[in-house]
Amino acid sequence: MPVDKGIEKDHFSMVSNKLSQDEELTPEAKGIILEILSRPEDWIIYKSQLTRKHTGITKINRIFKELREAGFLHIFYFRNTGKIRDKIWCAFGKPKTNEEFLEYQKTSGFKMFLQRHYYDKGYNL
Question: For residue 69, which of 105, 37, 103, 96 has the smallest C-alpha distance?
Fold first, then answer.
């Protein structure tokens, strides 16, 4: 059977076959990570947005846990005097280990994202 990929010139996303063919992820997890990855790179992930659009918070929490365990989602915590003050979700089209995520946090792109979105909140970046 032929496959018509319907490639568009604008408004499309490219994802790794590793993600789309991952047999360990549930279809719901694939759908949520694809939704997140289709957003602009500086999009801030809020569970509430996904809950309103897709399903309840309990299911979203389960899906986020699954995606975290698979390495597609990681959390960056803002700390002040040892206490967590805020967190941001980071999504990846290719799974990252915790060590790889720590290295990612040192990149200029990640630092620029933090400055653009969180500098005015008074976080020590």
Answer: 96
Residue 48's Cβ-count burial label (10 Å; 0-12, 13-18, 19+) is exposed
Residues in CB range of 97: below 8 A, 6 or more apart: 71
Does some domain include residue 96?
yes
Interval 4-41: pLDDT, tens: 556 666 677 777 888 888 899 999 999 999 989 988 88
Give SS3 for 70: helix
Domain ranges, residue 73? 18-120
> Which residues sit opposite 91 in a β-bridge?
73
Q: pTM of the prediction?
A: 0.80
For residue 40, count CB atoms less than 10 angstroms from its CB and return exposed for 0-12, middle for 13-18, buried for 19 or more.
exposed
Distance between CA 9 and CA 109 in Å, rounded? 26
Residue 13 domain flag: no
